[in-house]
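Fold it.
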Amino acid sequence: MNYLIGAFKPACNISITFADGKNRKQVPLKKENGQTIMVPLFQSQENISGKISIEPVLGKKVEHNGVKIELLGQIVRELDVPGEIYERKTYPFEFSTVEMPYETYNGVNVRLRYVLKVTVSRGYGGSVVEYQDFVVRNYTPPPSINNSIKMEVGIEDCLHIEFEYNKSKYHLKDVIIGKIYFLLVRIKIKNMDLEIRRRESTGSGANTHVETETLAKFELMDGAPVRGESIPIRLFLSPYELTPTHRNINNKFSVKYYLNLVLVDEEDRRIVTVMRTTAVGKDLSLRFPCDYY
């Protein structure tokens, strides 16, 4: 029985280490099983280099038909020709100035991953494969022009609200600062919340599937406002798991963010003002359709 169990174990152990792994910044990455691991962070055009170590188990030799490493979706490197491995063997690798234009993304129905894959090809007993994830984030300089936003919305003869934000472009660790002015109030408002929502769409045309999730809910007001009253807004973005907006990535998926201002009256009816953020993390612009139901 022990022999049978051992027959299904990998013939060797594979480990992947990055050349600057000890000094490179590590960031959390949530896997498909919900477990969070720490992985190295890279940017586009960086070199990705390191070493692959292959060690036979139980001191036995490993016959193979070649060893290769892949940066999935991009490049394949042959590390060794067919042969045998009798003891621990190390292979250096390097992918130079790798073009990685899209950032790592973990969503509801789609994941954008960067993975190193090492394969020890074997004719019998099955190939031995090892994976190593890493995260890509690309940074852009702050915009030279960053205008404020001032707009008005309302329901005719019932409610008239003016929004004012100090700027129109925000980064992921920024603070949204603004004010809400009540110019006309003929509805008995009970409370007001600000929500951050993410809208993830996959596919195209008739096959488009959309998932919307609320990432945060922030209470702005508890009680009835009066005409002429102003409510300050100071919303820190850093506590929330936001990403830059993704626009039709490889014709596969898009991600957009919305700020929903929700006012609830004494009859528990909701006034929803939707503020679409067209590029949270890089460029934020808002529009204000309003719905009362």
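Residues 1-5, 277-293 have pLDDT under 50 and may be disordered.
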